């Protein structure tokens, strides 16, 4: 077993993953050698000695439990966008995610939708964040704020989270003076981007889209209702081709997603509100140890 683990680490450190079947990669991801001792969780502070070419960028594990080797950094600003909260050091991601942000911003600019405010992607080497997210761990998640009326701001002026909500939380419906055709079109552009798997929005926003879309409704399938997400939307990219260590989500059911699944979000809670015991934090994939160790 020790010899097999050493081989797996060596392959990852060279920027190469298995060319065999996914089950072989999966077995390595789930083997945690005790020789490494405690499992580290502060992925963002780990340091690799050399950058990895973008062609070798590898997301490892699942969206809510993993890391990334060879992430790129989103420039703090570019055509049609500006990144916010740069002090968090969460503006890193797989090249597919970086390209998505830049393309979405250019398309939004071309249609005069407004300037995008880009929120969290991932930490430099992915992994669990100290606050705010369970996912965003493998460089394939991107937050985009709905407020499209931000002027160009100095970087220190972008250290903020007080973006306006699009939803009346009492009525559980969108605020029409805030969520309008520009926001809906931006979501359509994001959801129809070729490498996007899902776009998470507040259930009230999904309901508004279901009620207003009169043309091609196929893009609504990728727009998924989720709690929160009333001032920003969360884009999740597909596992890149050839990334056998990346664990995808189950496929989305067919249809526009405007039926009972959506309506269930507006039903009274089945359990009385109250504190819940904290969820156990899973150990990261064993392959992430090599990333953290900088081998």
Q: Overview of this structure, please?
A:
This protein is α+β, with helices and mostly antiparallel strands. The protein has a single domain (55-267), classed as Muramoyl-pentapeptide Carboxypeptidase, domain 2 (2-Layer Sandwich), CATH 3.30.1380.10. Helices cover 23% and strands 16% of the residues. It contains 7 helices and 13 strands. The chain has helices at 2-13, 22-29, 95-110, 181-191, 203-212, 260-263, 288-293, and strands at 58-62, 65-69, 72-73, 77-78, 81-83, 92-93, 116-118, 141-145, 167-168, 173-174, 196-201, 223-225, 232-237. Strand 11 (196-201), helix 5 and strand 12 (223-225) form a beta-alpha-beta unit.
| Biggest sheet architecture | 4 strands, mixed
- In the CATH hierarchy, what is the architecture at level 2? 2-Layer Sandwich
In angstroms, what separates the terminal alpha carbons?
A: 19 Å
Strand content: 15-25%
Q: In terms of structural class, how would the helical and strand content be classed?
A: alpha+beta
Quote the average pLDDT: 83
Number of strands: 13
| CATH topology (fold) name | Muramoyl-pentapeptide Carboxypeptidase, domain 2
Shape descriptor reads: globular
